[in-house]
Each structure stands twice: as C-alpha cells, then as structure tokens.
Amino acid sequence: MNRSFSLGGLLRRPEAGALLGLVAVLIFFSIFGGTSFLKIAGMSSWLNVAATLGVIAIPVGLLMIAGELDISVGAMVPAGAMTVSIISGHLGLPIWLGIATTLGLGVLVGLINGLMVVRTVVPSLIVTLGSLFAVQGMVLGLSVFITKSTSVALKTEGLAKILLGDFVFGQLQVMVIWWLLATAAYVYFIHFSRFGNWVFAMGGDKVSARNAGIPTERLTVTLFVLSSTSAAFVGMCQAILYNSAQVAGGQSFIFNSIISVVVGGVLLTGGFGSVIGIFFGTITFAIVTQGIYYTDFDRNWSSLIIGVLLLLAVLMNNTFRRAALSYAPKHKGAK
Amino acid sequence: MAKPIVKLTNINKHFGPIDVLHDISLEVNAGEVLCLLGDNGAGKSTVIKTLAGVFKPSSGTIEMDGEIVEFTGPRDAANRGIATVHQFGGTFPLMSIGRSFFVGVEPTRKFGPFNIFDRKTANEIAVRAVREFGITRIDDGDRLVGGLSGGERQALAIARAVHLGARVLILDEPTAALGVKEAAHVLRIVLQARQRGLAVIFITHNVVHALTVGDHFAVLIRGAKAADFKKGEKSREEITDLMAGGEAMAELEAEIKSYSAGQTPQAN
C-alpha cells in the first residue's frame, strides 16, 4: 500500500494531541517570553527537566498502556539517591558497588510490585501506593539509623561522574543523552518489535492476550522492574550530579510522570498510546514549568497552565481516538 | 469411520468440594458442528475451559485423534489446534486489524540488525483472511478493530483462528450480543468453517441459532449431560424444555399465562 502523507492519518495517531499541545505551548511562550528559551542556554533549562522526568515517564507510560499504574516511582527516586550516597559517600565504598546496589534495589522493588500485582490481583494503584510508603519509610528509617541524618554527601570522580552526573555542552545534563537513548530504545521495543504488540494487547484485553499465548505475567513484572529501576537510576544520577542526596523529595515525579504520559496521548485505562507521544508530553510539561521563568508572569501560575493543559489534552486525545475508531477509508467509485 | 478430532470421556471437574462437571462425555468430528446448550451456570464455560487447556479435569480423559492428551496450558491446547473465540471476539478495540490478528505470533522482518514487526505482510494476510469469510467491507489492515461491527469482529477472530491452523473451533456464545442480521452473518461463517473441515463447538443458549447450524447437540444441566442427540431428533420446544430443566419451564409458562390472563382486564 503506497500511502501519501495525509493530515487525517496524522491526526489519528496517538501522539497527535501531544504534538498539537507542544506546538501550542511553544507559541504561547514565544509570544509572552520571547524566543530566548529556544536558544541553547534556555533550552537546557527545560531539556534537563524533561530528561530527568522523561526517563521515568516512558516506563510509567508503558505500564499505563499495559493497563497498570506505578506510583512508587515517587519513593524510588530518593531511594536511589540515598542508596548510592550511603554506600559510596557515607560508608566510603567504591562507587560501582553503590551503583550496582542502587540498580539492584530498583529491580527488587519492581519485582515485588510486579509479583504482588500479578499474584494478588489487587489493583496496581493500591499495590504501588503501599510500596510507595513502604519504601519511603524504609529509606528514612535506614538513613537515620545508618547516618544519623536525612541528607548525605557524595563525592564522585572519574568515569561514573562523566557517565551519570556531569554536564555536556555547558549547561546540558548528561541525563539528556540517556533520555534520548532510552527513548530510541523504547520506540523500537514498543512500536517495532513484537513485544510492543504484546504490551498493547495486554492493555486492551488481558484475558484474550493470555489466551493468545502472551506471557502476560512475565511481561507485567518486567514493566514494573523497568519503571522502578528507571526511577532509582534517576535518583542515583541526581545524587552524583549534585554531590548529595536527601530523603525528602521525589513525590513530584508521581504526578508529573502521569501528566506527561496522559498529555502524551496514552489512554488511562490502557491499550492505546505511543512512546513518541510520551516524549512530546514530557517536553510540553517541562516547557510549561520552565518557560514561565522567561515570561513576566509570576511562576505560581505554571500549575494553572499545567492543569488546564492536562484537561485540554485529555479532551483532545479522546476526540482523536474516537476519530481513529470510526475511521474507515473512503471507497473509490462504486463497489 | 475416522476417529473424532476431540473426544471427552467421563470428564469430572471439581473446585474444592464443589462439583462443577459430572461425567461429561462428548465427541466432535471434522466438518461437524457440535452445539453445547445449557442455561447459565450449567457448566458450559467449564467444559470449554477444560478443552482450551485453562482447567485440568479432575478425572476423565481428553483424546485428540484417538490419542489421550493432557494439556499443560492454553498455549499447549492452542498448539494442538484448539482455538477459542469469545463473545466479543477476543480482539483488541484500539489495535489495528493487522496487529490484533497476529497478537502472539507477529510476523517480523529484518531491518538491519533488528527484527521488526512486518506491518505490511500482517495487514495483507489479515485482510485477505477475513475477506475469505465474506467480510468484503474490510480492506485496510490499519483500521482499528473497535471501528468494526460485532459480527465483523467475530469474523475477524474466527478468520484468525483458522489462519493460525485451528482444527477445533470453540465459539463461546458468538451470537449473544448481536442483532438478528449480524447473528445470521456469524452463523454463515460457522457453516463456512465447517465446510473447511473444522470441528466446531458452538456454545449458545439460543435454540434457534443452534438448530440452524448444528449437526449434533448436547444439553448440559447442572454440570451433567442431560441429553445428546443428532439433528432432527428433537424439536425446538423439546430442547428449550430440556435447557430450562423440563417441567420447571412448563410450570413457569403456566404461571405466566395465569398472570397475563388475570391482569389483562385491569390494564384495559
């Protein structure tokens, strides 16, 4: 089938709403804030935010496509930061041990989340709400027990610093490169490999997917491991970047990742969405939170914009999805 | 005569202390439609789940082509050619026709070092397969399944099962949610599947639909087989009575009659 470019075809894609939202936000801030946030220095401010959020938002979005939610990422970010800081900072052990333990913790919590969801059939919102608090409590308790403090310094040098917590091209965090690599990998995984088809099938109808021979349980657990490990990774990189870690913080990642994912056109109940959409959604979110600094508005207004944006995006995405559902190609001539 | 494709002998199934199936024996041959009739809760679903490898029978045997088999799971049953199509087609409303057709068995092609989903092949095969069942309205594999009518979805699911090499097609109330015209369409597809030499197990509680396509009928009541007969051996009324538990239905009808007789004058 040789299909030429069509506007209708573009609008029926899951990322259509996200792209329009991004364009609208860009226009809005260009008018009110000038174009300085599109220059290199300005760009790095929102690209850094987008990258940090985006690494978490994509696996959270994939879980949503598969019909699950993971809000424990809010606890995994500080957990990752504290783990690497306590092991490699407070205890003075090698940084690679800290990194391995942090990622190991991410895998472990993801396994627990995934297995609990699969085995108990309790909604994943509740399961991960439980692990959110459990991990928070554990991190606070252990940190105070080991270090007698809620913040720990971490000094990193060499390859670990360059790879995980440094700046490239001046103001840009190395996380941006991780984010772009991760996005490319996820695009392949979700939209081009056959596993992606399984994720969509699972979100569309879990029982049918299982009957079709898809290992739904293993796939669910894998996705939970991905999201919590990604969150631990982000926390770890932040600790290495800022040379310190705090027990508090990280909660904002819960809502921010969900907003990015939903603005990006993922259906909250699963079965529909795209990685590129989440990518656009994350950038849109980051521009709104950072672009406000380039305008004359008080920055307190940014939450209002995000709230309105979220509602508009959902309405728009619903409209596009309905259009995609009812779409039938026009028949040429009589049949 | 050839051995039946599938034969159940004295299948019992209990969940803990609760007996669900009691000594069920059934058989179905290639090119034959077996209608499994029964009221809600009669055990129809348990029978088909046992056939599809979801449940293991507590006792009794399943034979395929005369050999005793034990399914290790749904995938094993599917590999042996048993396919189940559920009421809503078991398709995914927000996936494209091509993608949902190949869930679990996606065709891939090489793209550099990567294996990628072969959308073009998937769409072509899916559209061709469903058109062979007379659904000519479908010609674009990129359309979302949710945009199809209920009958078209059933056709898509049946075409999928046939394409993937099903020899036994289990249809779980395929016409229950459909209008009259759509149901007729699905019944025609059932007959086409039979003509291709598939063994079809058709679950329904619509006696008219069963009589239209069935060669062989089995009625389940409370987990036991209450009747087993061939086409033309029983009338529609007899079957309806059987399904509802016989006398109970006659009593109920008499009761309803007395109600309407008593109430009609008041209503006017």
UniProtKB/TrEMBL annotation, chain A:
It is found in: Cell membrane. GO terms for molecular function: transmembrane transporter activity. Its main location: membrane. The chain crosses the membrane at residues 16-38, 45-66, 95-118, 125-147, 167-189, 219-242, 248-268, 275-295, 301-320. It is a multi-pass membrane protein. It comes from the Bacteria. GO terms for cellular component: plasma membrane. Keywords: Cell inner membrane, Cell membrane, Membrane, Sugar transport, Transmembrane, Transmembrane helix, Transport. Pfam families: BPD_transp_2. The keyword Mitochondrion does not apply. Part of the binding-protein-dependent transport system for D-xylose. Probably responsible for the translocation of the substrate across the membrane. This is Xylose transport system permease protein XylH. It comes from Devosia nanyangense.
From TrEMBL, chain B:
Pfam families: ABC_tran (PF00005). One of its GO terms (molecular function) is ATP hydrolysis activity. PANTHER family: CARBOHYDRATE TRANSPORT ATP-BINDING PROTEIN MG119-RELATED (PTHR43790), SUGAR ABC TRANSPORTER ATP-BINDING PROTEIN (PTHR43790:SF8). It comes from Devosia nanyangense. Belongs to the ABC transporter superfamily. PROSITE patterns: ABC_TRANSPORTER_1, ABC_TRANSPORTER_2. This is Sugar ABC transporter ATP-binding protein. SMART domains: AAA. The keyword Nucleotide-binding applies. Keywords: ATP-binding, Nucleotide-binding. Residues 6-247 form the ABC transporter domain.
